[in-house]
Amino acid sequence: MRLTDSEWKIANCLWKNKCMTLTELTRELLDSTGWTKYTIITLLKRMIEKVMVTYEQVGRTKKFYPAIDRTESEIEETNSFIDKVYEGNVGLMIANLIGSDALTEEQLAEIKKMIEEI
Fold this sequence. Notes:
The chain is mostly helical. The chain is 65% helix and 12% strand. The chain has helices spanning 5-17, 22-33, 37-49, 70-86, 90-99, 105-116; strands spanning 20-21, 53-58, 61-66. A 3-stranded antiparallel β-sheet has the order 1-3-2. The chain is elongated.
């Protein structure tokens, strides 16, 4: 299941912290997004409906948990990006990255090492 940009922000918080309350999510995301708790409530409701997030009621507080795997989500997003932008051509993507001077020498060395290990 593909996540929207907003859903990625919430999912990243939950993956990093394992479980969070609404107050914790609001505090964590306020500086980077400016979202109020009402925006986060709306996003959480949508993510619960999509079975991306679950929660546990503890007294009056809900604790939210990720219901999707980070690695699977990253792979799906990567494949979608490659299909959309490069029509499935990973080689073209790598060539563009290398040719754009966007990669550091360390990143280039890492890519070269990965390719050699195949």
